[in-house]
Amino acid sequence: MSYQLSRRQFLLSSASVAATSATVLPGCKMQSNNNQTDQTHRIALLGDVHFHDIHGDFGFNDNEVCIRTMQDSVGSTRMFNENYFVFKATLDDIVAEGIKFVILVGDFSDDGQEAHVDGLKRVLDQYSDDYGLEFFLTHGNHDPTTPYGEDCDKTFLRSDGAGVKVTSNQGDVESFNPTDEVDGVLYSTKMQSLGFTPLMEKLGRFGFQSQPHYHYYETPWNSNKLEDRVYQATSADGDYTVECPDSSYLVEPIEGFWICSVDMNTHVPLDPLGSQWDHDAKGYEDGKVQKPQVLAWLKEVIKRADEQGKTLLVFSHYPAIEYLNYSADDFYYLFADSSYNHKRVPTSETTEELIDCGLKLHFAGHIHINDTAKYVGRNGQTLVNVQAPSLAAYIPAYKKITCYAPDDFEIETKVIEDVPEFDSLFNHYENEISWRTAKGLDTHWKSMLEVSSYRELMYQHLICLTVNDKSDDWGWDMRHLYQSTFPIYWLMVLSVIDDDLSGTVLSTLVDNINPDTNDTKVIDLLVGAGLEQVSVNNAIEEVNQHLINMNYSRQQLNQAIFTDYCNAMLHIRNGDELALQDIGLDKVVGYSVVAELFGRCDIDNNLENHDYSQDYIEADPEAGSHEEFDENKDNLSNLKLRLAALARIFHMFRITEPTTHFRVFPSRGEVLDLSNENPLRIKA
């Protein structure tokens, strides 16, 4: 059934939303303090803002349903509503910093819906006109979701706490059946996801089209006209091609400074008419095949920049190097998260092709992580890739870039700690809790409403996302351990026991041991499980000696459980060294001590080497995910493979590049740490 609110109901239920307009749209202009010289250029680079316009015009009575449900947010890698507030707060911060140029590296909208794109345009226009900011955008896999647009539907939050389906497909309205979670349906053409051309027309002012004040502008297609900026996308079987737009461009906004946007979205047609498309969001990996013209153009741009002495900043939505400190396989083996899928990682062959293009420094988004990676090519040239985190996820931050010279870049990661009005929608989520409780639905995320800052909200969001959604895809053994309260100390003991334990026996131990179980009972359980008393005693002695050698005590691990360890690894995955202050340095030091011991589970005793045949069940990171209990997969021997993967992740975190504040000298491949935010880093 369709649901509509009265004018009075809407005004009462959305007063807090309306009140935010005054705070997020300042009445007085902030003075820009732009100290840039002809030689020094300052840029703010934002990754994956996923703008959701909470005041968007979807054509309803007074826009009463413009807020997504919290239940949807904790099932997504990003928060849906609060990104409105953090985006505005970040732009205010950029203005206060005196920065003029702002780059959005794709996924600038939710899913390219017209209402959200129109809202984004209003914000960008305001900051351009009032504060003199210049924006440069590229497309991501969420904008557009398909080259020529498609229907879209999302679940919005009704004032009484119920979900309501908002769709651009009239057929969805006619076939809708209410559920406990989604109780109504509404139709809106503004929910339609736009294609390339409408997006570039609406947002043309922001890099997609040449502007009168630009010193120079070009595209790979020998034309700046939108209708000419196309390539022939080839079907998977190679039988036919369909025309597909490309939005790559080169702009010189100020003399001597070039900004190059590389559109590596590749859409594969599923029919000769181009009515259906596939999109794996692999970026350069597919782009080098589907549109090699763009990489050939990039090579020429880099060559000309060198010859003309231009400072060149190259960005794309997609990374150019393996991210996650070269631990993507291990992360996928443990946590099976398709958002960080190891198959999205550029292969070394792709990175080599980019190095052959002359690329030395590259900026990207897409993965929602804070990361810096360095790769040395066959020709000895180095490529550095800088990943911008998402403001709509953990850790909410943007990159401040200062270009001193063509071969000298300073990069600082600015975390957005506090956001005005970030909690102004919480009363609506309280209504959602009431609705869901009355219907007997899950509300595990309600503790998120107790946070005191936006940064803390994003920290808790990642935990709730893991509990609500992501852990369902883990291997049964990982999920069972995560949902238990199994102590880290006794997991360390199991890791050094030579004997194997069956899946059934190991599962029973996990269910019966917790931080309050005394040593005598645990030892009895281990011996009762079939382990020799001497083996158990030797394992305990080995662990205790390890703690002594590491100048650490068992008491410091007293209440630590495997769940905490996993959550810490996931926060480090997203925030890298910036996560340390949120986790707590004392805890991270403890996890480092644990990882040192888990490293003994690595079969070849080389934490910097990946050997699929030894490191993973079935020699495949994807084999780490299995829903049901498996006696052959969930035994102690295979658990040790998991622990070895955790050890490799932590080791690589300690030896790779800084991510907080650093200097890059691209030609000589040097990355210089300016912050020392990771005290655990092993310096070369």
Automatic annotation (TrEMBL):
Give the matching InterPro entries: Metallo-depent_PP-like, STPP_CPPED1, TAT_signal
Q: Which SUPFAM superfamilies match?
A: Metallo-dependent phosphatases
Entry keyword Transmembrane: no
Please state the span of the N-terminal signal peptide per the UniProt entry: 1-18
The answer to whether keyword Signal applies is yes
Alphabetically ordered keywords of this record: Signal
From the Swiss-Prot or TrEMBL record, give the protein name: Calcineurin-like phosphoesterase
